[in-house]
Design goal:
This protein has two domains: 51 residues, no CATH class; 188 residues, Orthogonal Bundle (MetI-like fold), CATH 1.10.3720. α11 packs across α13. It is built from 17 helices and no strands. The chain has 317 residues and is an all-alpha fold. The two termini are 26 Å apart. The longest helix is centred in the last third of the chain and has 29 residues.
Length: 317
């Protein structure tokens, strides 16, 4: 910054003085943002250099720069591991369920709450929808395990009403795990994820609704022709970001809701990486898996962004 001001001063003293005054006025804002930038550099950019251990036989007892090079050995190892492909399949399936079941729900919730005519009730519903987000996942998992347990609320009710004679094994049946985990994830996050759509809806010009009402448009017609087009750019951006998460699962769900009975359906890439890195201390192997996962996510985001720019002229970049 100071070098650029000196260079500018040598070329145009007037512009340099204007830049100095502007920088002085913005000094308080600069002091606010620089700690965040430094934090980002230290914890997000510098650790990228650690990816080099994916190509080494890394050991904690050896200097970081003295580990022997292994080339693509670790990449070949996990690509030939059947457990990796099981975790990869589970991650993709859970992500697709989250995309097609969970992703539309915040949009629908925002549209529904926006149609509540009474401001007081609207705020109450919004607040209640946010509440599950602030509950720790450990508590959420324990809650739903109790509710859907063999002696839980749901099974007790069904047995007492005579609808079933034996408890339904919700959490020990592998076939039920993915849909239950998706529903729990939806319950916890749908209200919080709807905030961005509330903001997008509030940015729509209210005069459009007034004009539509004068022309005789009903509530559904207003949603279809005003609200949805008004938030479509936001929906597209969020969808592009969700595409990048296709190979990223929710570790909390896998660890807290999964068990040995449902491992074939609940074991995801993050859990696999955790087991390989901390469980077996194969740090280079785990880094290679994480690097592969990040690369796939990056390519998916770039591809989705390209398609969106081409057909909708909306994208992240």
């Amino acid at each position: 910054m100071f070098k650029s001001l000196k260079s500018l001063a040598s070329q145009d003293p007037v512009l340099a003085e204007q830049a100095r005054i502007r920088f002085k006025k913005q000094l308080s804002y600069q002091l606010m943002i620089w700690p965040s930038i430094i934090f980002l550099i230290i914890f997000s950019y510098i650790p990228i250099a650690g990816l080099v251990i994916a190509f080494q036989d890394y050991s904690l007892s050896t200097s970081y720069f003295n580990n022997p090079w292994a080339g693509l050995k670790h990449f070949k190892a996990f690509l030939n591991d059947s457990t990796f492909w099981m975790s990869f399949r589970n991650t993709i399936e859970l992500s697709l369920l989250r995309m097609f079941l969970v992703f539309p729900m915040p949009i629908l919730l925002a549209l529904i709450i926006n149609e509540i005519p009474y401001i007081k009730y609207k705020k109450i519903v919004q607040t209640c929808s946010y509440f599950p987000h602030f509950i720790a996942y450990v508590v959420v998992a324990a809650l739903w395990k109790d509710v859907l347990g063999n002696r839980g609320l749901v099974n007790n009710f069904l047995i007492s009403t005579g609808l079933i004679s034996e408890p339904i094994k919700f959490w020990t049946d592998p076939a039920k795990f993915k849909i239950l985990a998706t529903l729990v994830d939806m319950w916890k996050g749908v209200g919080w994820n709807a905030i961005i759509y509330f903001a997008a809806i509030s940015g729509i010009n209210s005069e459009l609704y007034e004009a539509a009402r004068i022309d005789g448009a009903g509530r559904l017609q207003q949603i279809r022709y005003i609200t949805l087009p008004g938030i479509m750019n936001t929906v597209i951006i969020m969808f592009i970001l969700s595409i990048g998460g296709l190979v990223s699962g929710n570790l909390n769900i896998s660890v807290l809701l999964g068990n040995s009975f449902t491992k074939s359906q609940s074991y995801i890439i993050e859990y696999y990486t955790l087991d390989m890195g901390l469980g077996t201390m194969r740090y280079s192997f785990a880094t290679a898996v994480g690097m592969f996962q990040s690369l796939i996510s990056f390519l998916l985001v770039v591809f989705a962004n390209h398609v969106s720019n081409k057909y909708n002229e909306v994208g992240l970049f």
